[in-house]
Amino acid sequence: MGQVVGPSCATPTTLGANRYAQFFLRPYYQSTTMVEMEKNANKKSKRALLLLNVIFLAIGACGGPMVMRLYFLHGGSRLWLESWLETGGWPVTFIPLLIAYFRRRRKEGSPAKLYFMGGPVFAAAAVIGLLTGLDDYIYSYGVDRLPVSTVSLVLASHLAFTALFAFILVKQRFTPYSINAVFLLIVGAGVLALHSSGDRPKGESNKEYFLGFFMTLAAAILYGFVLPLVELTYKKAKQAITYTLVLEIQLVMCFFATLFCTIGMLINKDFKAIPREARDFELGETTYYVVLVCSGIVWQGFYLGAIGVIFAGSSLLCAVIIATLLPVTEILAVIFYKEKYTEEIHNPSNASQ
């Protein structure tokens, strides 16, 4: 039987080797611990950032359609104006950007960068902004023709298109559950299209209603393409993607979207029509301008939340959150605008029987 050498039986050579290992390996273990702590801190900060942007997204996704519908219900009729307001609040983004800059300036002094966006990212943000401007107009057309509850149901299909384009553009992985959910959303939107007469606004023809429906569906398709395109921009950018850079991308996107809608307003002479429309607004001239300002601010929260969720999560997560919030918008429409669900909307399975 061999003798087992315990700690008490350690030789001077063994003790020297242990001390040598502790002396030289201690910095390695300490640095490893610090890296792990930094990773945990980054995860916590990213979760907090995700939660903050989900709140912004929720306010915009629920409040934006409600304020827009309020404009149309009480005498507003300028589609390009409402499209413009969806991104017209872009100067609000200067507030966090300036705060971040002055903080950098205080720490780094005069060498602090005024902005981080490079040329390729700027170009990509500008293109996405123009697509967003087109999407804004198409969406405004649908909201003008359809009740908020119907618009929300049709827009639920954007999750399917986001999933498709996320798979193509950013190689998003899927599970059987997500595929099944996407399929059910498409079927639900199709049933609504076939059984839609009950929720049509009074005095609106079949042609106008179905045109509003398909324009809303087109808006869902286009925005389903825009969300993964933003994520692709993050992935392909040849620079570090920070939240400050994300805010700069948001600023450029909304600026070009607003520029697109401004051209439409000039062609349609909407700027000249605003004072007259304000005087004729059913809730009063002052309320008219309050509605416009609130619309711009609330929609800016939506876009800020959307790109923030994509930064902290993914484009598919953003689409899932938007789809999850749609029933809240429907409930708000029932409460505030007294919209009624038809049998088809409340229970689509009955419509096919």
TrEMBL record:
<feature type="transmembrane region" description="Helical">
    <location>
        <begin position="209"/>
        <end position="230"/>
    </location>
</feature>
<dbReference type="GO" id="GO:0015211">
    <property type="term" value="F:purine nucleoside transmembrane transporter activity"/>
</dbReference>
<feature type="transmembrane region" description="Helical">
    <location>
        <begin position="316"/>
        <end position="337"/>
    </location>
</feature>
<feature type="transmembrane region" description="Helical">
    <location>
        <begin position="84"/>
        <end position="102"/>
    </location>
</feature>
<keyword id="KW-0812">Transmembrane</keyword>
<protein>
    <recommendedName>
        <fullName>Probable purine permease</fullName>
    </recommendedName>
</protein>
<keyword id="KW-1133">Transmembrane helix</keyword>
<feature type="transmembrane region" description="Helical">
    <location>
        <begin position="242"/>
        <end position="267"/>
    </location>
</feature>
<dbReference type="InterPro" id="IPR037185">
    <property type="entry name" value="EmrE-like"/>
</dbReference>
<feature type="transmembrane region" description="Helical">
    <location>
        <begin position="114"/>
        <end position="134"/>
    </location>
</feature>
<comment type="similarity">
    <text>Belongs to the purine permeases (TC 2.A.7.14) family.</text>
</comment>
<dbReference type="Pfam" id="PF16913">
    <property type="entry name" value="PUNUT"/>
</dbReference>
<keyword id="KW-0472">Membrane</keyword>
<dbReference type="InterPro" id="IPR030182">
    <property type="entry name" value="PUP_plant"/>
</dbReference>
<feature type="transmembrane region" description="Helical">
    <location>
        <begin position="287"/>
        <end position="309"/>
    </location>
</feature>
<feature type="transmembrane region" description="Helical">
    <location>
        <begin position="146"/>
        <end position="170"/>
    </location>
</feature>
<feature type="transmembrane region" description="Helical">
    <location>
        <begin position="177"/>
        <end position="197"/>
    </location>
</feature>
<dbReference type="GO" id="GO:0005345">
    <property type="term" value="F:purine nucleobase transmembrane transporter activity"/>
</dbReference>
<feature type="transmembrane region" description="Helical">
    <location>
        <begin position="49"/>
        <end position="72"/>
    </location>
</feature>
<dbReference type="GO" id="GO:0016020">
    <property type="term" value="C:membrane"/>
</dbReference>
<keyword id="KW-0813">Transport</keyword>
